[in-house]
């Protein structure tokens, strides 16, 4: 009887759980099954792939650098502040997380476009953002920065407050405390935040194609190339997809210790 | 610990079974409910097969799913409305995109009864075993679209060769992109292309928003955009003409009637009122 009861519970949870797993795993498995593995090296040598790969690597690295330089201080202020406005600010930061990326692209156009809020003041100086690699970085940063800030803020909140008191009584200023104690302790959080933001930036499609357009070597990143190649040669699109899938799995492997314990 | 286990109140066995049954019953329901709005597979089979194709006397029923090139958006919206008004039992579902995207969708099993494409070349990758009938119903030519006021002063295709003019084109994989490349080859100019968009409407949008100085689109798109853009004609020796085919993928009466309507004098007049040319 007891075993029968346990068996029923397992079945009750196991069947829907198995279905959930199937819904997630089957498409990925299908990608692997439909791939022509012998063709992948040749497909990845298609003349359009290298510029897209180079562009994706450059822009995602710039995005990661922007997150590090601008996002870390923002995370610090969020982690330190108990002001009621902070929770509003944090909620605002999560908006790009849930916003459809194409809406992000439209918003970026309204801000940085030739007739945009900021863009119209840049145009007289000959500075135009849309259709440039800068636009790709802006789009990627828009969608990826929140991941970084929230991850690092979480790590910073976990710091023992007594450490700072001790450092301060020993005569260290706030910046010195950050440099010698605070930052080194949250380095793992910064690393996983960077990996997460980088992976999100690598997959960016909607905001990029809306705001930055699609031009080989300048704004055509790997996801955009997958979309375009699907119409020309689906097998090439599948091969690039497998490369992106491999990168995602690699990033998850790096993050495994922190996020998937 | 193990000694207390038998005394622990056991969960009622029926609970697990109930949950299992409920979940298993709900999954297909949820899928069916979510699919109802988009999936029209098999919904065309209700009308009798004995009726003459296109006969208005017999009451037609069913759903006709039509995939059409982005440049046909306005004209097919009107065709759909007129056909549905004349045949209250028929629902025409339309979806628009680049011709190459639509052909891929059909090849991958998208449930469509009719596909209308920008140019005969776009139909070449289409799985021939699916095609029941192909007819040319319209033609289109390229035109330059510029924002109102024409900030870059574009007056001919040769002006697109100036490095200061930011040009947006359709992607090389879609018909309007291929046609634009052919035009540039004939005119022997190399434009300053800033983006290659996924379909002709996305290309036009960049000019509507004022982000680009010029786009090469179809004449019909410039007509459809009304005051949002200004058209600049491309001279005949450089222009590229496309023959638009309407391809029937099913044999049911409602589908045959819709295609016959597109090809009728009234249907052709509707299409031509949106700036497309006669076949």
What does this protein structure show overall?
- The complex is a heterodimer of chains A (261) and B (279).
- Chain A has 261 residues and is mainly α.
- Helix content of chain A is 79%, strand content 0%.
- The longest helix of chain A is centred in the first third of the chain and has 33 residues, at 2-34.
- In chain B, strand 1, helix 2 and strand 2 (90-97) form a beta-alpha-beta unit.
- Chain B has helices spanning 13-36, 73-86, 99-107, 175-187, 200-208, 219-224, 253-263, 265-273; strands at 62-69, 90-97, 114-116, 133-146, 166-170, 192-197, 214-218, 230-233, 241-248.
- The longest helix of chain B is centred in the N-terminal third of the chain and has 24 residues, at 13-36.
- In chain B, strands 1, 2, 3, 4, 5, 6, 7, 8 and 9 form a nine-stranded mixed beta sheet that branches.
- Chain B folds into two domains: 62-139 and 243-273, Periplasmic binding protein-like II (D-Maltodextrin-Binding Protein, domain 2), CATH 3.40.190; 141-241, D-Maltodextrin-Binding Protein, domain 2 (3-Layer(aba) Sandwich).
- Chain B is an alpha/beta fold.
- In chain B, 46% of the residues are buried.
- Classes of the chains: A mainly alpha (261), B alpha/beta (279).
- Chain A binds chain B through residues 1-2, 4-5, 8-9, 11-13, 15-16, 19, 109, 113-115, 128, 130-131, 209, 212-216, 218-219, 227-228, 230-232, 234, and chain B through 6, 10-11, 13, 15-17, 19-20, 23-24, 27, 98, 100-101, 104, 166, 168, 171-174, 193-198, 206, 209-212.
Please compute the radius of gyration of chain A using only Cα atoms. Answer: 22 Å
How many helices of chain A?
A: 12
Most residues in contact, chain pair and counts: A-B, 33 and 33 residues
Q: How many domains make up the 3D coordinates of chain B?
A: 2
Shape of chain A: globular
Q: Give the name of the CATH architecture of the largest domain in chain B.
A: 3-Layer(aba) Sandwich
Query: How far apart lie the N and C ends of chain A?
Result: 34 Å
- Can you summarize the main beta sheet of chain B? 9 strands, mixed
């Amino acid at each position: 009887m007891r075993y029968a009861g346990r068996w029923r519970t397992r079945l009750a949870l196991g069947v829907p759980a198995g279905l959930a797993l199937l819904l997630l795993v089957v498409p990925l498995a299908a990608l692997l099954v439909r791939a022509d593995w012998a063709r992948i090296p040749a497909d990845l040598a298609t003349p359009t792939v290298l510029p897209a790969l180079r562009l994706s690597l450059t822009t995602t690295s710039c995005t990661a650098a922007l997150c590090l330089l601008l996002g870390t201080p923002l995370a610090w202020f969020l982690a330190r502040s108990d002001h009621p406005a902070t929770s509003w600010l944090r909620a605002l930061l999560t908006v790009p997380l849930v916003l459809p990326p194409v809406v992000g692209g439209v918003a970026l156009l309204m801000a940085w476009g030739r007739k945009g809020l900021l863009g119209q003041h840049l145009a007289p100086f000959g500075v135009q953002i849309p259709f440039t690699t800068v636009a790709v970085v802006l789009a990627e940063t828009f969608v990826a920065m929140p991941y970084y800030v929230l991850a690092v803020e979480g790590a910073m909140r976990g710091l023992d407050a007594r450490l700072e008191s001790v450092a301060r009584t020993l005569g260290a200023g706030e910046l010195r405390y950050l440099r010698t104690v605070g930052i080194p302790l949250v380095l793992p959080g910064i690393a996983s935040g960077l990996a997460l933001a980088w992976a999100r930036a690598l997959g960016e499609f909607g905001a990029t194609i809306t705001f930055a357009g699609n031009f080989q070597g300048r704004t055509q990143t790997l996801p955009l190339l997958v979309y375009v190649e699907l119409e020309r040669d689906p097998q090439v699109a599948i091969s690039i997809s497998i490369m992106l899938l491999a990168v995602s799995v690699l990033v998850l492997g790096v993050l495994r210790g922190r996020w998937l314990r | 610990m193990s000694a207390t286990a038998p005394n622990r109140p056991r969960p009622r066995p029926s609970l697990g079974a109930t949950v299992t049954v409920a979940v298993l019953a709900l999954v297909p329901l949820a899928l069916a409910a979510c699919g109802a709005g988009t999936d029209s597979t098999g919904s065309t089979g209700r009308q009798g097969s004995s009726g003459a194709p296109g006969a208005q006397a017999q009451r037609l029923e069913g759903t006709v799913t039509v995939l059409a090139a982005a440049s046909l958006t306005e004209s097919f919206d009107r065709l759909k409305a007129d056909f549905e008004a004349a045949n209250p039992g028929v629902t025409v579902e339309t979806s628009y995109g680049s011709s190459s995207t639509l052909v891929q969708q059909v090849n991958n099993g998208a449930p469509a009864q009719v596909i209308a494409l920008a140019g005969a070349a776009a139909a070449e990758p289409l799985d021939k075993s699916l095609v029941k009938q192909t007819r040319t119903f319209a033609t289109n030519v390229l035109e330059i679209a510029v924002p109102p006021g024409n900030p870059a002063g574009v007056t001919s295709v040769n002006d697109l060769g100036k490095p200061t003019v930011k040009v947006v084109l359709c992607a090389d994989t879609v018909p309007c992109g291929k046609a634009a490349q052919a035009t540039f080859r004939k005119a022997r100019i190399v434009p300053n292309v800033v983006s290659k968009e996924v379909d002709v409407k996305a290309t036009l949008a960049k000019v509507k928003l004022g982000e680009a100085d010029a786009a090469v689109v179809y004449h019909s798109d410039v007509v459809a955009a009304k005051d949002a853009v200004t058209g600049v004609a491309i001279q005949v020796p450089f222009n590229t003409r496309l023959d638009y085919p309407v391809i029937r993928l099913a044999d049911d009466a409602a589908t045959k009637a819709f295609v016959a309507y597109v090809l009728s004098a009234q249907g052709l007049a509707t299409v031509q009122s949106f700036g497309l040319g006669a076949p």
